[in-house]
Structure to design on (684 residues):
């Protein structure tokens, strides 16, 4: 779950302070509810047009909705299992890989916001 | 007059010329002006040149065709120019001559390859992209990037070697080196196909992509993401359009990376998997091979280069400020990098194909082409892959970088030139999505297609929002796989771990056997000679009975034998 940070110092960019709305208490629930409403609206659009389906399965009411929901959940589920099978420690490939390397400091400009 | 002169020069050479010129210019405004100016001049040249075949150069009895401009090559050249411009703008801060020269030579090679009318010049440019691009990986200057660059180079050069072998056989079979549509069947065409497939990251040949792109420099990855693989897509579209096996290869390509991307921690590697998945859609389009499908492939490549560059830029900008691209180390950056966050969201919406963004108007061409040819399962798989794109590129990249749990990092906003590069790219992503006809008008074939039908919009919105709903539920319940510092095995483990360890095991066994037998031999020979010495040596009891003239007698016997032989021969 997102950690709630409510303070937004005035020094932050104004866009950043606006966007901080998403992290205000209770707003994650609000976003979730908005999403549900959007889903219901997009589902109800089904009755506003006539389908010209190429395949039988496509012509079912709300095919895309079911398919999107189920397949997405399935994807996460399978990926979780896959991780159990193929996850190895970060330095598995040792020095011949960039996995554990730090990015060279001379090629970046690490600046903090208040600096 | 100037324009006539410009039209005489192959487009690739403009880039090579610029790569030479910048060596003599000081770092800063002048050099950067050339870096940004040359893609614009090149695009202008191609745009004003008209269709046809230009610049024929004789080469050992062959006519090399350096400029074959038709509608298929033109769209790829134009997007390559645009990508070079945006990539160079993003890299405005660079003071590294090697990377700048490499970027120009790389873009030039890719453009040259796309314009090649014959397969010998294609081969030269093909290898050119390999050699130029590896410097963008090595420029990172670490041990890891050195080895990764080596692996990348070996695979890329191998692809070129296979290509020229195929071309030689093709010439022996047909007497032609023209780069036209081919039929799979002979060894020659299979080799050429394999060579294209390696660069296109076909399944099992794909791992160089996920291995090398995250190892390049911040700006290098943005440039790498545009050229090599899309050049391979172009080559497939040119040479193997309508080859059915590509439909199945493309579908597997679109599917398997989404699982890997979901659990990968390095966000630039997530994007590399995502790139692989997007290539799958394009390859399916090539496999279908109808006008609608090839339009789908070309337009998808065009839109994809933009939104993929945008995503790589936004993650790159974060890396530039925080030093890392690992999801486990990031989060909550929108507070101080809001503009980068918004550009990243635009890229995410584009790749996820939300209506009004570029992915929507291009991916639907391919999907419609698949549906039109009644490939039900392929279509279902691709619709699933579209939902998969949402999961890793649409949600994972922006959410775990800029939102989700707060990492406590408060980096400053990206520098101006990066914001500008991202801003222009984001604008283009939306512009193409809102006004699809601009892109449709430069596609290889005339387009009679309206992506914005109610049915289409509603279907896509349902797919995406219900997938988002699934994510929201899974995430709120804490079931989403957490971001962990770890590496996931892929097929590259075969040549990075198994093969070296098998080889070193075999080497160990052979070495031990050799050492064992040789020491055994040595030991037994020494033992035997010492026994002989003991029984027959000067100090042995037998030596006491030897006559003093033993040597004289044996020489006399030998001479007698020689006389005997000579007498009878």
């Amino acid at each position: 779950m997102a950690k709630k940070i409510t303070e937004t110092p005035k020094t932050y960019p104004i866009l950043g302070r606006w966007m901080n709305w998403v992290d205000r208490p209770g707003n994650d629930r609000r976003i979730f509810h908005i999403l549900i409403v959007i889903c219901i609206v997009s589902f109800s659009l089904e009755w506003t047009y006539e389908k010209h389906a190429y395949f039988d399965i496509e012509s079912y009411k709300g095919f895309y909705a079911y398919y999107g929901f189920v397949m997405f959940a399935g994807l996460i589920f399978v990926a979780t299992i896959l991780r159990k099978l193929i996850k190895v420690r970060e330095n598995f490939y040792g020095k011949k890989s960039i996995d554990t390397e730090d990015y060279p400091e001379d090629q970046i400009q690490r600046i903090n916001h208040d600096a | 007059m100037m324009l006539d002169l410009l039209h005489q020069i192959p487009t690739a050479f403009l880039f090579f010329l610029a790569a030479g010129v910048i060596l003599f210019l000081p770092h800063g405004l002048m050099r950067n002006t050339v870096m940004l100016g040359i893609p614009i001049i090149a695009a202008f040249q191609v745009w004003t040149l008209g269709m046809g075949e230009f610049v024929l150069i004789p080469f050992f009895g062959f006519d090399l065709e350096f400029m074959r401009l038709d509608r298929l090559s033109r769209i790829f050249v134009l997007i390559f120019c645009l990508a070079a411009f945006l990539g160079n703008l993003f890299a405005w801060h660079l003071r590294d001559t090697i990377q700048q020269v490499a970027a120009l030579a790389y873009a030039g090679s890719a453009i040259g390859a796309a314009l090649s009318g014959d397969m010998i010049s294609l081969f030269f440019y093909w290898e050119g992209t390999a050699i130029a691009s590896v410097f963008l990986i090595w420029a990172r200057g670490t041990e890891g990037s050195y080895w990764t660059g080596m692996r990348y180079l070996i695979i890329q050069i191998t692809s070129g070697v296979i290509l020229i072998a195929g071309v030689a056989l093709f010439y022996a079979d047909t007497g032609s080196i023209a780069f036209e549509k081919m039929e799979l069947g002979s060894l020659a065409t299979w080799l050429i196909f394999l060579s294209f497939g390696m660069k296109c990251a076909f399944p099992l040949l794909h791992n160089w992509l996920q291995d090398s792109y995250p190892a390049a420099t911040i700006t290098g990855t943005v440039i790498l993401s545009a050229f090599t693989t899309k050049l391979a897509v172009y080559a497939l579209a040119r040479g193997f359009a309508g080859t059915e096996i590509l439909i199945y290869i493309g579908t597997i390509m679109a599917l398997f990376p989404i699982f890997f991307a979901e659990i990968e921690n390095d966000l630039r590697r997530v994007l590399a998997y995502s790139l692989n998945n997007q290539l799958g859609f394009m390859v399916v389009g090539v496999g279908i091979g109808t006008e609608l499908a090839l339009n789908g492939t070309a337009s998808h490549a065009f839109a994809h280069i933009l939104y993929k560059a945008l995503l790589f830029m936004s993650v790159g900008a974060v890396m530039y400020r925080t030093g890392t691209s690992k999801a486990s180390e990031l989060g909550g950056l929108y507070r101080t990098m809001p503009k980068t966050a918004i550009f990243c969201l635009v890229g995410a919406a584009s790749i996820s194909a939300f209506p009004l963004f570029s992915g929507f108007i291009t991916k639907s061409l391919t999907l419609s082409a698949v549906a039109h040819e009644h490939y039900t399962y392929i279509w279902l798989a691709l619709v699933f892959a579209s939902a998969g794109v949402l999961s890793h590129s649409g949600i994972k990249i922006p959410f775990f970088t800029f939102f989700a749990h707060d990492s406590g990092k408060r980096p400053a906003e990206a520098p101006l030139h990066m914001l500008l590069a991202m801003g222009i790219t984001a604008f283009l992503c939306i512009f193409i999505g809102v006004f699809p006809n601009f892109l449709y008008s430069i596609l290889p074939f005339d387009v009679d297609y309206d992506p914005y039908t109610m049915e289409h919009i509603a279907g896509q919105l349902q797919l995406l929002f219900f997938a988002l709903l699934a994510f929201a539920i899974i995430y709120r319940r804490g079931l989403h796989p957490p971001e962990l510092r770890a590496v996931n095995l892929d097929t590259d483990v075969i040549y990075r771990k198994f093969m070296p360890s098998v080889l070193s095991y075999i080497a160990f066994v052979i070495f031990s056997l050799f050492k064992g037998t040789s020491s055994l031999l040595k030991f037994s020979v020494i033992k035997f000679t010492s026994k002989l010495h003991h029984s027959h040596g000067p100090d042995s009891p037998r030596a006491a009975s030897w006559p003093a003239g033993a040597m004289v007698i044996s020489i006399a016997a030998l001479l007698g034998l020689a006389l005997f032989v000579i007498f009878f021969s």
In short: Strands of chain B lie at 52-59, 62-69, 487-488. Chain B touches chain A through 89 residues (CB under 8 Å). The first strand of chain B starts at residue 52 and ends at 59.
